[in-house]
């Protein structure tokens, strides 16, 4: 049965959690949600804020190679994160790395205005191809898609060029959908890897079916 959750009563679970194949990072103390994510995604769960914020899904990007954060991360947060995963700290004023990067273990699509120097560092560190792009016409690609190694749920306004770009760079076949009763910013409402997912509490049965198809669970 599909699992749904809310954090602080908020169905936008993707704002508070970032997951890879082996690790999930959550920015709030919520043992019920931590247990749910550990069970559904089959990962270790660690708790820390990033850049002083509980919104770790917004503040960091991550795949199996490591995590990407901005220079605004606090020392104690970096130390906590480095105990679990390799971390790339980018010298940029952009704090919301999870907003501007959509990635899996094969590739990454980033905000179209992200500096080429930063793109090269991300590519070298995560060992993936990195290209600029939009998803659904949205520059904050990390919130406009949910990408794993098995599939991708993307903003329903994604055009044919964007869909083809996702398939070529990330190596998965994207499916358009919504979360939380019609939200097009699907990255805000789903936490997922190739083994499982947790969606926001307001996600409808129909939306859950599309999510399962998109992420390869049907």
From TrEMBL:
Answer yes or no on keyword Hydrolase: no
- Highest rank taxon of the organism: Archaea
Keyword Cell division belongs to the record: no
HAMAP family linked: eIF_6
Similarity-based family: Belongs to the eIF-6 family.
Keywords, in A-Z order: Initiation factor, Protein biosynthesis
Gene Ontology molecular function terms on file = ribosome binding; translation initiation factor activity
**A single GO BP annotation from the record?**
cytosolic ribosome assembly
Q: What is this protein called?
A: Translation initiation factor 6
Q: What does this protein do?
A: Binds to the 50S ribosomal subunit and prevents its association with the 30S ribosomal subunit to form the 70S initiation complex.
């Amino acid at each position: 049965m599909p699992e749904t959750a809310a954090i602080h009563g908020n169905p936008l679970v993707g704002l508070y959690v970032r997951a890879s194949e082996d690790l999930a990072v959550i920015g709030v103390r919520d043992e019920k949600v931590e247990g749910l994510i550990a069970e559904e995604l089959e990962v270790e769960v660690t708790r820390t804020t990033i850049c002083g914020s509980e919104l770790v899904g917004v503040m960091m990007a991550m795949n199996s190679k490591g995590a990407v954060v901005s220079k605004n991360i606090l020392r104690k947060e970096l130390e906590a994160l480095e105990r679990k995963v390799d971390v790339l700290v980018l010298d940029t004023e952009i704090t919301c790395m999870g907003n501007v990067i959509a990635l899996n273990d094969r590739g990454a699509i980033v905000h179209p205005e992200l500096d080429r120097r930063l793109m090269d560092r991300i590519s070298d560190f995560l060992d993936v191809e990195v290209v600029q792009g939009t998803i659904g016409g949205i520059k904050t690609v990390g919130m406009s898609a949910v990408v794993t190694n098995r599939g991708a749920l993307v903003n329903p306004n994604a055009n044919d060029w964007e869909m083809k770009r996702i398939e070529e760079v990330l190596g998965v076949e994207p499916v358009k959908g919504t979360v939380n009763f019609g939200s097009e910013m699907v990255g805000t409402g789903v936490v997922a890897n190739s083994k499982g997912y947790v969606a926001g509490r307001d996600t409808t049965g129909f939306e859950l079916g599309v999510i399962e198809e998109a992420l390869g669970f049907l």
